[in-house]
Structure of Cholesterol 7-alpha-monooxygenase:
Amino acid sequence: MITIFLVWGIVVAVCCYLWPIFGIRKRKMGEPPLENGLIPYLGCALQFGANPLEFLRENQRKHGHVFTCKLVGKYVHFITNPLSYHKVLCHGKYFDWKKFHFATSAKAFGHRSIDPNDGNTTENINDTFIKTLQGNALNSLTESMMENLQLTMRPPVFSNSKISAWVTEGMYSFCYRVMFEAGYLTLFGRDLTRQDAQRTHILNNLDNFKQFDKVFPALAAGLPIHLFKTAHNAREKLAESLRHENLQKRNHISELVSLRMFLNDTVSTFDDLEKAKTHLAILWASQANTIPATFWSLLQMIRNPDAMKAATEEVNKTLESAGQKISFEGSPICLNQMQLNNLPVLDSIIKESLRLSSASLNIRTAKEDFTLHLEGGSYSIRKDDIIALYPQLMHLDPEIYPDPLTFKYDRYLDENGKTKTTFYSNGLKLKYYYMPFGSGATICPGRLFAVHEIKQFLILMLSYFELELVESHAKCPPLDQSRAGLGILPPLNDIEFKYKFKHL
Ligand code: HEM
Ligand SMILES: *[C@@H]1O[C@H](CO)[C@@H](O)[C@H](O)[C@H]1NC(C)=O
Ligand SMILES: *[C@@H]1O[C@H](CO)[C@@H](O)[C@H](O)[C@H]1NC(C)=O
Ligand SMILES: *[C@@H]1O[C@H](CO)[C@@H](O)[C@H](O)[C@H]1NC(C)=O
Ligand SMILES: *[C@@H]1O[C@H](CO)[C@@H](O)[C@H](O)[C@H]1NC(C)=O
């Protein structure tokens, strides 16, 4: 795949050499320092792509906290001082939050524009997400996820003979399988008529999802899906299975999906397959970050005996006070939102795991020329330029997070064992110090559900299984940097672990 990138890059570069003059911007008075890069059109894209964190740190040393880089034909203003983040977000009226998201979604999933301004639909997708992922809807979503996780994780009934044996499996592939299956059932409902065929169907979709997701960074970078035959096939098969006629046979479909299936959208010009492609976009949003986030949380917890002990105690206490009994045959464990929200140790473990693995790029487009006022000074921004935050710079800043590459399970706990919210940069208290879910108007609408899912997963792993790493002092696998910018980075290689059902 690397070679395809290179070939494509060279083609683009050669084309652009034919009319180099138009491509180069001159810095004007009041604008941030500018890096045009060496390659026309692509600008700094190759250096940025190779190692975004190092590239940005280097420019920060050279230019200070605010600078502009040309990236694939766009001028991107990076704001790198976390003390400025809240100031940036104050300029909301100059930002188009959605333009970039809509365009990326259309390119990657193959539906036409869902921007109401383009006249294909009247749906306000932002309202749909907030209505179906938060508030009352979050209750049923969370409840349903807890049942589905147990459906996926508990031993099948009548199989007592083998359940006490150790199983060895890659931890990433375990998390992938369990979270994908349970998450899929939660969003798209269960097929009660064909229970046995259902698992085959979902595992088949999981394979297609993996194939498609593998090329997602390339699609987001603007390469057409036709370059990737297997991934293209996989995407079409996934969309096919999310057509209305197939979903109709399922029960307990989440509001997120059912509301969009029966949307009385007066100007929707989308046919069945195109609607299915928008469902696929939601499937991707719900899984692509959650799966690696779950993996890192489980791995870090198991690797750190103190974390494991504190988590086990917290879970034990919570289950006792909720009157829940752990058993393989009885009713599934059930915790309400209040109980899930009151788990500071698990919260801290999850936050610390995401701090170390998240590499999202937060992007807004300038709707008009305007002046960006920050603490350190004011900057002229041109229409259609991009304002970007790269929170990994903050997450790994040793001043805010001492010893930033070390996992400390209690980093987000205060001296009373409650959630800690005071972090400092330059002696000043930070308003934004933890941003794996983005910020402002485009903050992830599924973030509350995501944290519930991961907590539920950890609670059930601790309750039902004995857990061990195959190599007890195994090194943490490195992050897959090829997905930098997209969210939580997966591990570059899997790591084996052993689990067996507890004697209950
Ligand atoms: C640990 C798990 C997750 C992480 C780290 C995460 C992170 C993010 C980030 C960084 C964005 C883009 C925000 C921006 O552009 O500023 C986003 C968007 C989104 N996320 Fe999540 N997410 C997670 C889980 C979920 C789940 C479980 C769901 C839904 C069931 C979900 C639904 C969405 C949707 C629908 C959007 C698009 C919002 C829009 O463009 O209007 N996410 N997420
Ligand atoms: C729908 O969206 C596409 C871009 O994806 C655009 O070209 C087209 O004009 C839009 N409107 C209609 C009514 O199809
Ligand atoms: C759409 O219309 C149908 C029939 O008129 C109705 O049953 C359904 O509840 C409506 N859906 C929404 C989301 O308003
Ligand atoms: C919690 O710990 C106590 C004491 O060690 C033990 O007796 C009890 O069974 C545990 N409860 C659960 C739900 O694991
Ligand atoms: C989405 O809706 C929420 C709540 O109504 C609002 O705060 C946010 O600004 C909206 N985002 C966009 C991009 O319109």
